Amino acid sequence: MHYPRRPVLHSLCQPVPRTFSSTAQPLARSSRSALRHAHRNIPKYPHGPSLLYKQSNFGLYGNVRPQFGNMVSERNEIKTRRKWEPNIHDKRLWSVALGKYIQVRVQARVLRTIDKVGGLDEYLLGESPARIKELGMEGWKMRWRLLQDRGVKERLRRRRVELGLRPQGAEMFLSDAELLGEAESVGAKGAGVLDERTGEVVEGGEEEMTDEDVERMIEEADRAERRRRDVLMASKDSGQRPSIQP
After folding, report:
1. pLDDT digits (tens, 9 = 90+) for 83-104
2. Nearest-CA neighbor of 45 among 145, 130, 122, 136?
């Protein structure tokens, strides 16, 4: 018996549109892309991300890594490999400059260091090379957020005035209008000179040296060099220790 062929429904062959979902799409599918997204608008970290312990790039780990060793039995001294994980805690630390709590994963030793130096802001604003290396990628991002605060900028400006110099790299966190205003004020007042007796910055710098001053300094240096050579030759002939007067 012959049966008629059933028609093909083309609508079933077409792809079904995706239904609505309230789940947010992930910003990154790997730790490398997550770091690239988080650090896209800040200066490059000089030491780069950690490649061996990647989760340390998302917290204040203080350059710690898992330690490996052996667990030895007391009876027959059989060694079994084991692993020691870093002591990491999830903490809410208060930032005075930002005026709010910051949720961060922090290692126990770093937490003691924060209490010792006087808070999270003082820890992040440390200037030693060891502190910069200890911050890691997450600490570097938090440090940059602090340096954008107006109070921290004013604190760095007062320190520059007290020392009579500008720390290298501090101007990168100032706006163009602030740099232009500071350059105009310095050009109007002249370069400041630090008075060694009072410790204050005196307006006006040294006068520009003329050609005669340069020639006189060169002649004095040549005379000092000839006097040093004569003393060395005389001491070599007599066998005595040379005594060079400035």
Report:
1. 999 999 999 999 999 899 999 9
2. 136
**Angstrom distances, CA of residue 166 to CA of 29, 144, 147:** 42, 18, 15
Q: Answer yes or no: are the C-beta atoms of 45 and 39 closer than 8 Å.
A: yes
Count other C-beta atoms under 10 Å from residue 122's C-beta: 13
Weakest-pLDDT range from 59-63, 64-68, 123-127, 242-246: 242-246
| 170's tokens | 């501090």
**191 confidence band (pLDDT: 50, 70, 90):** very low
- The single residue listed with the structure tokens 């079904």 is 16
Phi, psi of 25 (to 5 degrees): -75, 140
* One-character DSSP codes across 12-49: HHSPPPPPP--SPPPS-SSHHHHHHHHTTTSPPPTT--
The answer to whether residues 27 and 34 touch, using CB atoms and an 8 Å cutoff, is yes
Could you tell me how many residues make up the chain? 246
Q: Which three-class secondary structure state does DSSP give residue 231?
A: helix
Please give the pLDDT value at position 132.
92
d(CA 169, CA 56): 26
For residue 36, what pLDDT is reported?
Answer: 86
Q: What is the DSSP letter of 60?
A: B
Is 82 within 8 Å of 69 (Cβ atoms)? Answer: yes
What confidence tens digit (pLDDT) does each residue in 16-45 have? 566 666 766 666 678 888 888 888 888 999
Contact 124, 80 (CB under 8 A): no
Amino acid letter, residue 9: L
